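User: Okay, second chain of the day. Same drill as before: sequence in, structure tokens out.
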Amino acid sequence: MEKFTNWRDKGTGIAPFIPTPPPLAQEKGLKGFLGGISFVLKLVLASPIVLVALLLKWTPAYHPLCKVAIKMIFGWNLQVSVQGVKSRKQGPQFMPSKGKVYIVNYTSPLDPLVLWFIARGPVAFCVPKPQRKTASLYRLNFWEIVQFTLGGSTWGSAQHDFQEIKSAMELSNYVTYVFAEGTTSNGKSVLPFVVTQQFWNEFLGEPAVGSSSSVKTLTSTASRDAEVRAIHIKINSSLTTPLRIGAWRYLARASSQGVTYKCRISEPLGRDLEKTRVALCGGDKFKLVGKELNTESKMKFAVEYGSRRR
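Assistant: Same drill. Structure tokens below.
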């Protein structure tokens, strides 16, 4: 794909918006047809479990039943590691929990599903929208963020009726996941964050200097800083969706390939966004792409890529 050099980072050589296609034979001809039939059969076999899960939605059985259904359809394989905790000691107490904020890299419409699986409590998915020199943060429910991702995860000129979130305190009863890049990539790097440092400080809450309650505010802010972590998630490269894709095509592909996720939860990082971005890239800042490869650049790339593919 040398013709897309304008969207390749000059320092790393990484082109974060170019999709990684599956083997051609997998989706064409007889093998592609049989893959579609297999997906339908898996859906039929899993449907009774899904139905029971929906009937038991407000019970503890809901979560495990959903996992069983997803395992049947996608051959789901999830590996979770927690930084600073030995693997034999890792347990539910180290999983994402209510009142904490997690910045997550963004690669596919299945990301919300894996984050829901590992959460200890109700979840809130937040995606930033660029606003000139700052950003706005919007909360999307599970189906909204899946549809947003399948559609290319770019805001464009379309109107969205998502809930705007101005403070982390609004989501104190949720496990809060923030996709700070604002759009998906192919997972080869971490895009520049749409969220600015100033916005992030205000979102987490800055202590009110000179206020009679400043000590209390400072304590709560410091506590919230201590609970900000990064979660790096990695899916099969051909299941990343830097560009829009049809739901049926994507789900059939995922079912045919099988889904493998690796999830790494960092230690507390505080509020420094640059530090968090490096953590999402495995601690190697030299793998980060430049600031020019942002959401605006991706929208231009999508147009160019579509025109070249015709």
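The first strand starts at residue 77 and ends at 82.

User: Thanks, on to the next one.
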